[in-house]
Amino acid sequence: MANLFRDQALNLLMEEARETGEHSLKRTLGVFQLTALGLGRSWGGIFVMVGLGAQYAGPGLTLSFVLSGLGCAFAGCAMRSSRP
């Protein structure tokens, strides 16, 4: 149980990541797989929230999703315009 909250120095982790050989970490997921994982997680979360929210909000749930989508779109535009 004492090892549960143990931490490691960042430089040691970076050295381990650069290692090659039998006991090194290998990249197995590409861009497509990581994108599919992210989209699947997002869509799954949306369906769960719709199911939970429909019990309490009823028809107002649609409006709340539209408003939150607009908020995300504006936040994305603000992030994009602040890049150098």
Characterise the protein shown here.
The chain is mainly α and 84 residues long. The chain contains 3 helices and no strands.
Could you name the key traits of this structure?
84 residues, mainly alpha
Summed up, what is this model?
With 84 residues, the protein is mainly alpha-helical. It contains 3 helices and no strands.
Estimate percent helicity.
55-70%
What's the number of helices? 3
- Tell me the radius of gyration: 21 Å
Structural class, from helix and strand content?
mainly alpha
- The helix/strand order is HHH
Topology:
Elements: H1 10-18, H2 31-56, H3 60-81
